[in-house]
Design a protein that fits this description.
It is built from twelve helices and 27 strands. By secondary structure, it is α/β, with parallel strands linked by helices. The radius of gyration is 31 Å and the shape is elongated. The structure holds one RNA strand.
RNA sequence: UGCCUCGUGGUGUAAUGGUAGCACCGCAGAUUCUGAUUCUGCUUGUUGGGGUUCGAGUCCCUGCGAGGCAACCA
């Protein structure tokens, strides 16, 4: 990927303008700020590509910051797995860092500073403690169409607010008894300006800081502080935060007044927020809550179930980091809410795997073929990847009895069926030309054995008289083949939009055929495969070996054969 | 019926007042020891109505449609 290939989307133009205007002090700094309360999914991958990608493009830094301001839902397990997944995607956080690890930050490491800033706000008469209940607060705030009503505590003198705020911090009050609110504008048409809560009491232990605090800052207060103190220049997030931007700017203004903006290259760094559309994919759900629900109710095997849109699930499914990044590049960045087609993702993974995946023959729905006039066994050698001469070759044996896929045989072939059928010639890949003479069926009419003869002149695969054979089949030698298990995956949901009847109903649209376990036979070379290794099963699809030894189907090969 | 945002082929995205282009999907053909890959070609689009302009997808007005905002979540 070179620079001119990436689209000059609006965020890129925005940053270019700021760089040209000298606003960055010589370095573009972005951040990816996940809350460690779940596993990251393909939607986050898009954001990661944007955040890390823009930093990379402009030669700057992208911080990885755990936005851990709500201890109730967060855990170290999530934080660690988020780091693992981002690394796997191929991104490296950089910058100073707030501890030992460069580029890595925890919002919680700024709690001291945030608390101090909150006290400053109180002293300046820009924040006050409020003891309205949540229900009251809701009523006072009003609705977007009508102005709100001020809290009775709105004009409390700073000294008293300071005393109460400290008592909040010191654990004198229960959760929800008091909170700290910014004093802005109860009549604003923007709800977020109606004296938003910026600190709340939570007697919950923090996964990172333990019981050090019982008051925690709210997102709208914490985020701009985190960005500003880290020297972030460009803070990119999803569309739903657009209405929060004025509040973000309000907080940055206060920091500016307090002289807390960092300086770089003689320039005061004012972080700015911009919003872009999140990624939506048809036939899937992306909400962390709904994914968690599927995990907890065991609709799927876990966060890394290969049907999940999580990064770890896609990894187990066999997707490559490159394919995911290519996909994120190709869907682009805009403010238009849209639903991308998973077909593009599949195209991206085929595109990469076609060039890189080792070829193997595997028969996953086997039926036996007997080559009646064949005696003994012969060895053949096939390239590991015909598209890559450096990939090497592997050997295998062809014998009198082989397996082919049931779908490659028809007793009464339909028009344009180029595969095996009585009287019809096919090529057995790498071996010879074979002519079917008939088949044996059981009482139920199921084909149990196919018979035929080989053309001894065609060893290697080509006829000496130059006649063309339209169909080439993959096969596995019955004597030397090894048993394989595979899981054939399809989309988790059968409905384009599983949420069309609301989030309560989305499970109604689960695809009952989203996974099918099959077993069959494969050429011996596949027995050496290691977990995580990717293969193309010829004429079938791309597969990756899972930790239990089975092969997960990443995606099928494109198939333009249409039964008549 | 408050404020904000967004409407370009089936899908995603370009065109920044000057020939509506690219990719995916789909369809057709060529090549092929993977009905894959590769190659060629094709179908399909600016939300309606006004206005400004020599010229509007782009600027203005006005409809229509979609979404966001009323957690002490992020």
């Amino acid at each position: 990927m070179n620079e001119s290939d990436t689209s000059r989307h609006f965020l890129r133009q925005w940053i270019e303008g700021d760089v040209a205007a000298g606003k960055t002090g010589g370095k573009v700094v972005t951040r990816f700020p996940p809350e460690p309360n779940g596993y990251i999914h393909i939607g986050h991958a898009k954001a990661i590509c944007v955040d890390f990608g823009m930093a990379e493009l402009f030669g700057g830094d992208c911080h990885l910051r755990m936005d851990d301001t709500n201890p109730a839902k967060e855990s170290d397990e999530y934080a660690e797995n988020i780091k693992k997944d981002i690394s796997w995607l191929g991104f490296k956080w950089s910058g100073e860092g707030d501890g030992k690890e460069p580029g890595f930050y925890n919002a919680s490491n700024m709690f001291d500073k945030m608390y101090e800033i909150a006290e400053n706000l109180i002293r300046a008469g820009q924040a006050y403690c409020c003891n309205l209940t949540q229900e009251e607060w809701k009523a006072y705030r009003g609705v977007p169409e009508k102005p709100g009503v001020p809290s009775p505590r709105r004009d409390t003198p700073p000294e008293e607010n300071l005393r109460i705020f400290r008592e909040m911090r010191d654990g004198k009050y229960a959760d929800g008894e008091w909170c700290l609110r910014a004093k802005i504008d109860m009549a604003s048409p923007n709800i977020h300006f109606r004296d938003p809560v910026i600190y709340r009491i939570r007697h919950v232990s923090h996964y990172h800081l333990g019981d050090k605090w019982c008051v925690y800052p709210m997102y709208d207060f914490a985020h701009p502080i985190e960005d500003a103190l880290e020297g972030v220049t460009h803070s990119m997030c999803t569309l739903e935060f657009e209405v929060h931007r004025p509040l973000y700017d309000w907080v940055v203004d206060r920091l500016d007044e307090m002289g807390l903006l960092v300086e770089r290259g003689g320039v005061k760094i004012r972080p700015q927020q911009r919003e872009f559309a999140r990624l939506n994919l048809t036939h899937t759900v992306m909400s962390k809550r709904l994914l968690l629900q599927m995990v907890q109710t065991k609709v799927v095997d876990g966060w890394d179930d290969p049907r999940m849109p999580t990064v770890c699930g896609m990894r187990r499914r066999g997707f490559t980091p490159g394919a995911i990044r290519e996909f994120c590049e190709r869907i682009g960045v805009s403010k238009t809410e849209s639903e991308s087609d998973p077909a593009l993702l599949e195209w991206c993974v085929r595109e990469e795997l076609n060039k890189t995946a080792t070829r193997r023959m595997a028969v996953l729905d086997p039926v036996k073929v007997v080559v009646d006039n064949f005696v003994g066994s012969r060895e053949i050698e096939l390239p590991d990847n015909p598209l890559d001469e450096g990939a090497g070759t592997r050997k295998m044996v062809f014998g009198r009895e082989i397996w082919i896929d049931r779908a490659d045989f028809m007793e009464i072939p339909e028009k344009k069926f180029f595969r095996m059928a009585p009287g019809q010639e096919v090529r057995l890949r790498g071996a010879c030309i074979f002519k079917c003479t008939g088949c044996i069926k059981d009482e139920s009419g199921k084909v149990v054995e196919i018979h035929g003869t080989w053309d001894e002149q065609s060893w290697g695969g080509n006829a000496v008289d130059g006649r063309k054979v339209k169909g080439t089949l993959h096969w596995v030698d019955a004597a030397t083949g090894v048993p394989v298990k595979a899981r054939l995956y399809e989309s988790l949901f059968s409905e384009k939009n599983p949420l069309k009847d609301g989030p309560e109903k989305f499970l109604d649209y689960l695809n009952p055929g989203s996974v099918r376990e099959v077993s069959g036979f494969a050429e011996p070379a596949l027995a050496d495969a290691k977990p995580g290794e990717r293969f193309q099963f010829e004429r079938t699809g791309y597969f990756v070996k899972d930790r239990d030894g089975a092969f997960n189907r990443t995606v099928t090969l494109k198939d333009s054969y249409k039964p008549a």
